[in-house]
Amino acid sequence: MKCENCTKKECSKKQKNDDTQSTSVDPLSSNDGFEEKDEFHTLANAKTLLSDCLACDNCMTSEEGARVFQQNQKELFRILNLNKKCDTSKHKVLVVSICPQSLPYFAAKFNLSVNDAAKRLCGFLKSLGVHYVFDTTIAADFSILESQREFVQRYQRRNQEEHALPMFASACPGWIRYAERVLTNLVTSHICTAKSPQQIMGSLVKGYFARQQNLSPDKIFHVIVAPCYDKKLEALREEFYTALYNSQEVDCVLTSGEIVQIMEQKNVSMKDVTEVAVDSLFDEIKEGDVVRHDGKRSDGYLEHIFKHAAKELFGVDVKEITYKALKNKDFQEVTLEKDGETVLRFAAAYGFRNIQNMVLKLKKGKFLYHFVEVLACPGGCLNGKGQAQTEDGKPDKALLNQMEEVYAAIPVRLPETNMHVQKMYQDWLEGMDSKKVQETLHTKYSAANQTASNLDIKW
Predict the structure, then answer these.
(1) In degrees rounded to 5, what are phi and psi of residue 106?
(2) For residue 254, what pLDDT band results from cuts at 50, 70 and 90?
(3) What is the pLDDT of residues 34-66, one digit of tens each?
(4) Are 151 and 305 in contact (CB under 8 A)?
(5) Lowest-confidence range among 26-30, 241-245, 378-382, 412-416?
């Protein structure tokens, strides 16, 4: 058998998740140098199943595999313990950034409001020894704004450049890995170059925040709390590494579920934790109430780009977006009509069955969409495999329903209205059209060497 996300006709991981012979890897095997027994040593047996993400050995080198599985709770506690030692030269400023799709999980699981969940999660992390806790929504602001601008530019060049359209969203690392390793040049030139919110947050923490605190980037250890395991692999990409400081933009990714495991190991309940306001990147300001972007289960790239493009390209002010479900609820389209003509056609494709169908249409030249928000997880980011899973590895549907209700109730803030973002474009990034914007907020996706074609997989 093979896992549901496998992109190979014959998977080398033929055993089930619960077969202990080969489906799990000891995340500490590459960290043998850290043997000290301390108050956190009980987490040493935490494991990541290979089927939890796309990062099976079919799309990873052995070195990547070792580094992915090293990203676990013990790595966090290794830094916490270093900070307790007398040699201050090895101390790190420990920063944790939390994805907005993780907060509904904590809120629903512990029966809290999303604002209380954010503050209690912050309080718990700081009780461990974390120095700063940030919300990655500001990074998503940058990512969405850059994606909006890029789509309008691509649309305007569509008659001059063969690969200008369609444009595919770039926020999902599982989708990006699949596109680069399996779909190759058919797709990679169509992927938006804006970095994902995770990696823009890495630039903000290791760039902007480090400069504000007069710190070298290598003196900061940056942890992301995310809903899925594929984020671990994304953090290792070469273009997100700075050789000058021997520093990754994101040093470690922990899933929401892995944070809960820490709480369970320490016998702590969120309801018993003291509330602490989430930090802001800007001086001594604290974050206010939790906000989100448009989009029921993700950061809402489709909604924001659609509304922006309608206004910029056709002068149409779209207030509400109407989705039309096609083959299933995870493949939906949105269109804009003007003077009896369909001038914009967007789609949301979640899950690999829908992605496969989408790519087959592209290959056959029957692709009608200008933009597609592509997410590897069926149901979107809230359904990431790093949270809301039952003991047998299946989605906890009851909890997911609660999470969707929590997420939908969070107030929406448009990226354009974030004054901190507008100020940072001028003060930090030297203007919206600067070279620094391209270097800091954008990246490139390229096809990896892949000999096998997998477009004919039967799902």
Answers:
(1) -65, -40
(2) very high
(3) 334 444 444 434 444 434 445 444 556 667 667
(4) yes
(5) 26-30
Concatenating the DSSP letter of every residue in 26-44 gives: -TTTT-TT-----TTGGGG
Highest mean pLDDT among 64-73, 219-228, 295-304: 219-228
Are 169 and 147 a contacting pair, CB within 8 Å? yes
Q: Which residues pair with 286 in a beta bridge?
A: 279
| C-alpha to C-alpha distance for 387 and 372, rounded to whole angstroms | 25
User: Distance of CA 440 to CAs 99, 139, 164, 226, 429, Å?
Assistant: 20, 12, 22, 21, 8
Give the pLDDT confidence score for residue 89 in this predicted structure. Answer: 86
| pLDDT of 190 over the 60 cut | yes
Does position 4 have pLDDT exceeding 50, yes or no? no
Task: Give the SS3 label for residue 357.
Answer: helix
- Cβ–Cβ < 8 Å for 152, 313: yes
- Phi, then psi, of 177 in degrees rounded to 5: -60, -45
What DSSP assignment string belongs to 240-295? GEETTTTEESS-EEEEHHHHHHHHHHTT--GGGSPP-PPB-SSTTPBP-S--B-S-
CB 89 within 8 A of CB 188: no
Pairing of strands 341-350, 371-375: parallel
> Cβ distance 337 to 343 under 8 Å?
yes
Tokens 């989408």 sit at which residue? Answer: 358
Question: Which stretch of DSSP H or E encloses residue 348?
Answer: strand 341-350
**pLDDT band at residue 443 under the 50/70/90 scheme:** very high
* 414 CB burial (10 A radius; 0-12, 13-18, 19+): middle
Q: How is residue 420 written in tokens?
A: 């901190």
Kindly calculate the radius of gyration of the chain based on its CA atoms and give it in whole angstroms. Answer: 21
